[in-house]
Amino acid sequence: MRVVAESTDPVRISFLLALLRDAGLPCIVLDAHISAVEGGIGAFPRRIAVAAEDLAQARRVLREAGEAEA
């Protein structure tokens, strides 16, 4: 698995997941349950990961959507 994006913003994470899934790319959110440890303050970013073989396509999809950071 390779990380393609990270954010502390749950809305942005949801948006990025939708972009990747709409493109047919399986993806997962890493650190999704860290809020139980951090107390829900949003200090730790959630990371979105895809399979290594999907990395180039995932980066292209995010870049085309204006998410160049990813």
Automatic annotation (TrEMBL):
InterPro entries in alphabetical order: DUF2007, N-reg_PII-like_a/b
Domain DUF2007: 1-66
Pfam families in the cross-refs: DUF2007
Record's protein name: DUF2007 domain-containing protein
Source organism (scientific name): Paracraurococcus lichenis
